[in-house]
Design brief:
The chain is an alpha/beta fold and about 230 residues long. It is about 40% helix and about 15% strand.
Length: about 230
């Protein structure tokens, strides 16, 4: 489906199973639901889409979810005193479900899981989903994940017209990685802006052009590496 959707139209390879290792601090924006309305396929299918979706994203520092995680993990503020907790708590008190939870009790259990995830990454390091899948004590949190390639469960980002990384999915792990100041985490790319993909295409045809200032972008270096393997 990725090949049919976009791969056949461009020179630079678009691989739905490709994983990049990037600095989590380079993901400075978040794609909101309204900015993803133009995406046509589920996360497993890569796309190339033009338009304004990349500029309609919000800075991650202004994201209530992110600021509340910082308050909790960096400043030791109890979850109950964060804006995130208050926001969702009001919905539960109104009888609504949110964040995959039906009640405030479920929500508190979910937050306990986030605390455990933070401690696991802090003490054991950030591991790829492929590596986690090989550990007998790790099981998929959702049954559907048992039947997906592990790459599909990595943090998912989009790439804007200028190469900006924009968070698409996996906000818990991305936020924790940023708070812990990790150097690299594995990510998949869901959507590339059409203008960015054209730059990748140009890089393929002139991949030895060291004058290109974006040559060291992870999505460019991976492209060139793939071309080297192809020519070999």
């Amino acid at each position: 489906m990725t090949w049919y959707t976009c791969g056949r139209h461009y020179e630079a390879p678009i691989d739905p199973l490709e994983v990049l290792n990037i600095d989590p601090s380079s993901v400075n924006k978040v794609s909101l639901p309204s900015s993803k309305d133009c995406f046509n396929h589920p996360n497993s299918v890569c796309e190339v889409i033009g338009g304004e979706w990349d500029v309609e994203s919000t800075p991650i520092e202004e994201y209530v979810f992110y600021s509340s995680f910082q308050d909790h993990f960096k400043h030791n503020i109890p979850w109950e005193e964060t804006r995130f907790y208050n926001k969702w708590g009001e919905r539960f008190n109104a009888g609504e479900s949110a964040w995959g939870c039906e009640t405030l009790t479920d929500f508190n259990k979910r937050l306990k899981h986030i605390d455990d995830l933070y401690q696991t990454i802090d003490h054991g390091g950030y591991q790829s989903q492929k590596r986690l899948q090989t550990q007998s004590n790790i099981t998929a949190h959702r049954k559907i994940h048992q039947y997906c390639p592990p790459e599909f469960n990595e943090v998912v980002v989009n790439v804007g017209r200028d190469g900006d990384f924009i968070l698409n999915d996996g906000r818990h792990r991305l936020t924790i990685a940023r708070i812990l100041n990790l150097d690299k985490i594995p990510v998949r790319i869901k959507v590339r802006h059409k203008k960015w993909q054209r730059k990748r295409d140009k890089m393929v045809s002139n991949y030895v052009d060291s004058s290109n200032t974006q040559m060291n972008h992870p999505d460019m270096t991976q492209t060139i590496s793939g071309q080297d393997r192809h020519f070999c």
